[in-house]
Design brief:
The protein is built from 2 helices and 10 strands, in the order ααββββββββββ. Strands 1, 2, 4, 5, 7 and 8 form a 6-stranded antiparallel sheet that branches. A 4-stranded mixed sheet has the order 3-10-9-6, with helices on one face. A hairpin with a 3-residue loop joins strand 1 (50-52) and strand 2 (56-59). It has helices at 7-17, 19-29, and strands at residues 50-52, 56-59, 65-68, 75-76, 82-90, 97-102, 111-114, 122-130, 134-142, 145-155. The protein has 167 residues and is mainly beta. It has a single domain (7-155), classed as Immunoglobulins (Immunoglobulin-like, Sandwich).
Length: 167
């Protein structure tokens, strides 16, 4: 069956109108994200989502994009910040500190919560709050050891359900 001469331009117009989804993909290509290198701290078995060194490692999203969507993981703070858990492993003793900055435009720095009660070495649960969607560089520090990675933060629609604070 032959396509009418008008079918190709109409099909192209439909694709252009569907740009919001493809615009998110285009945004991802403008952020030089860090892909996991499989290295874990403390000599643990390699895992495909780990990124780091034997001294400090974090689990990353496989494609370097942290997506916040309705019904998905993460949360939205009252100020609009997008929050996601990031598990770390420390191979050196000390308290983990996290900071970060947006690379693609000026924005407030990331906030982080490093959960207490995990000791000075090994697994460490954290929550990172990104003030907005965009390209973010995050650095974790323990003693003299640092680990930096870049993620593309994408918000779809209203994002996940806002966090409900316990009074």
């Amino acid at each position: 069956m032959r396509l009418a001469a008008w079918a190709l331009p109409v099909f192209a117009l439909v694709l252009l109108r569907a740009a919001p989804a493809s615009a998110q993909a285009a945004q991802a290509t403008t952020c030089n994200v860090t892909l996991p290198n499989g290295v874990t701290a403390l000599g643990q078995d390699p895992t495909p989502h780990a990124h780091g060194t034997e001294a400090l490692a974090v689990l990353l999203w496989p494609d370097g994009t942290v997506t916040f969507r309705p019904g998905g993981p993460g949360g939205v703070e009252p100020d609009g910040a997008l929050t996601m858990k990031f598990p770390w492993h420390r191979g050196v003793r000390g308290r983990l500190e996290i900071d970060g900055r947006r690379l693609d435009k000026p924005e407030r720095a990331v906030r982080s919560l490093v959960a207490p009660g995990y000791g000075e070495v090994g697994f460490q649960s954290t929550l990172i709050a990104f003030p907005s969607a965009g390209c973010w560089e995050v650095t974790g520090r323990v003693a003299d050891t640092t680990l930096t990675f870049v993620v593309n933060v994408v918000k779809i629609g209203s994002g996940p359900t806002p966090w409900r604070r316990v009074p």
